[in-house]
Amino acid sequence: MKSAFEAAEQYFAEAASVLDLSSSMRTLLMTPEREIKVQVPVKLDNGEIATFVGYRMQHNSARGPMKGGLRYHHEVNADEVLALASLMTWKTAVVDIPFGGAKGGISVNTKELSIDELERLTRRFVDELHDLFGPDKDIPAPDMGTNAQTMAWIMNQYEKFHGFSPACVTGKPVELYGAEGREEATGRGVGALTLATLRRCRRPIEASTIAIQGFGNVGTFTAAYLEKAGTRIVAISDVSGGVLNRSGIDVSAALDWVRSAGSLTGFSGGERISNDEILALDVDVLIPAALGGVLTHENAKDVRAKMIVEAANGPVTPEADAIFRQREIPVLPDILANAGGVTVSYFEWVQNQQYFRWDLRRVREELEKSLTRGFDRVWATAEEKKVPLRTAAYLLAIGRVGRAEILGGI
Ligand code: NAD
Predict the structure, then answer these.
(1) Given 67, 103, 172, 306, which residue is catalytic?
(2) CATH code of the domain covering residue 55
(3) Residue 234: phi, psi to the nearest 5?
(4) Whole-angstrom Cα distance, residue 217 to residue 236?
(5) Which of 254, 262, 274, 363 is such that its CA lies 20 to 30 A from the CA of 134?
(6) For 38-68, what is each residue's pLDDT tens digit?
(7) What range defines the domain where residue 298 resides?
(8) CA-CA distance, 240 to 214, in Å (whole number)?
């Protein structure tokens, strides 16, 4: 299986060929502006010192300050962070928000640290990087293993060096300069774009069946949005396995169950299925919303969904993508499908810069407007150039970043 970075390079290369991009422009766009690897030592509660490795990959700033999440996970490595940083460059460009792309992370198992240790880890990471962060330079956000509390620590530590600066980070608690609607934004965006895809494929919303792998932040808000829109959520899953109910799962009952029991294990709203089985269900839309690399050359032939919406980052490997193209199963690519989160992060940054707060209704309206505009452009490009949706999204994104590079000059 290709690494995350090789996959990102392949999708870039495909679109670059359609655009007939010069090799010098290809090199400029694929070379990260800055790769940072730092030592992050932390004094543990027992007095010992533990040393971790942190990364920040600043991929491209041609269209604006760099933007991207900060991941705390024991498998974080330079290759993966770099791949995710380049995805952020194309993601911000495809929905046309004025940011570039970056990503960061610390290789750490958060379950092994206390809350105080996590706070010290985060503050020390900011001590190392604060000169490279900033509202007009590089703006972190939550990702796997980090949350609104982590962002509050980052803001507080950054301000010790640079003074009051709420726009230095997004995904903050709503009480501390965060935006209404940030938590739901990615799932809501996935839901809205799934409906848009169904409409374009001339499938009736009411009769459509949906399977969602992953019932965390993205999966739950996606499920709730699509259930309310009238589709039938026939299967959901989390790390503990899945549940299938052909007459429709009661999403709020499943949510209540997971809130109290911690996982879908024991939920009685359907029959148990495995995480492999959910990927092969005969449904209208399959939404992988958990991990990357779940649809591969080995299981792509078993997929019976009529379309796939990539809510997670990179759930379809390039080999599986080729099989879906051959089988004419449309795949709505991650850089568009899950761009709702970064879009509302942009709204948070705008509000922080203006010291002005939008209400939830405004956030939702602006989000749908922004994503629908991006979707319509991608769809039109796919039709015009006769390319898959993923290539179309990359064509638009690379075109925008490339033009910014040329207009700005070096
Ligand atoms: P989360 O941690 O809230 O939820 C992850 C879910 O996946 C959980 O239900 C977990 O049980 C499940 N899961 C974990 N391992 C699994 C496995 N092996 N099989 C099946 N399910 C498994 O994470 P999230 O924020 O919902 O993010 C999900 C995906 O979406 C990630 O790929 C993330 O990078 C991507 N994403 C998230 C956002 C966001 O704003 N949260 C934005 C863009 C992309």
Answers:
(1) 103
(2) 3.40.50.10860
(3) -95, -20
(4) 13
(5) 363
(6) 999 999 999 999 999 999 999 999 999 999 9
(7) 185-327
(8) 10
